[in-house]
Amino acid sequence: MILLPALLLLAPAASAPAPDVVVTSLRKLRIATQVDGGKVTGCHARVSSGDGGIDRAACAATVACFNGGVTQPEPLADCVEAKVAALVRERGGQ
């Protein structure tokens, strides 16, 4: 199953990227997942954002959202985006 979620870099606050940089990176990102028994069991960037941290964060959020019951593409992308935005705010990237 291929998902098109948007996510963010998990980096220290001092190096948090500007929001427009994150958005540009996320537009490139394509996530591929392996689903077994209705749960995501594997995840990788099929097309990288260009930043390994963003790619890993996207997978973590995709797994959390999907395994939490959000399985339709648009709601899944919204869930992932919300998780990433929260992480950016926590790390000072607003």
TrEMBL record:
Signal peptide location: 1-18
Q: Which UniProt keywords apply?
A: Signal
Protein name as catalogued: UrcA family protein
Q: Which organism is this entry from?
A: Sphingomonas lycopersici
